[in-house]
């Protein structure tokens, strides 16, 4: 179920699934993507408006082929920082796995 951004925002720097409108280069003019926010500000391209979000679901219960299972393994993570480069089209995020005992959305 989508969560309205006007009602609730995700934990700061938590990567979530977002429903957006506007032109996101390389992704299209509206759709679904992964993103994060701090407070009430989403880190998305200029001109993109996030209208809803949801936590990334747990996929551990899915039956997958062995070679696909690594790609589907996901643990909640939080962005802790970035590595920038001279190429402004490239920015690498640094993730830290969240404690599985923490309560989250």
UniProtKB/TrEMBL annotation:
Sequence ranges assigned to domain DUF551 in this UniProt record: 2-58
Pfam families cross-referenced by the UniProt entry: DUF551
Name of this protein: DUF551 domain-containing protein
Species of the source: Endozoicomonas lisbonensis
């Amino acid at each position: 179920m989508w969560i309205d951004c006007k009602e609730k925002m995700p934990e700061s720097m938590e990567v979530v699934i977002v429903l957006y409108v506007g032109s996101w280069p390389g992704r299209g003019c509206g759709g679904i993507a992964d993103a994060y926010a701090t407070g009430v500000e989403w880190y998305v391209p200029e001109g993109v408006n996030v209208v809803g979000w949801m936590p990334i679901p747990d996929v551990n219960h899915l039956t997958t082929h062995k070679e696909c299972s690594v790609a589907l393994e996901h643990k909640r993570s939080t962005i802790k920082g970035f590595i920038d480069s001279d190429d402004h089209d490239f920015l690498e995020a640094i993730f830290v796995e969240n404690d599985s005992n923490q309560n989250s959305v």
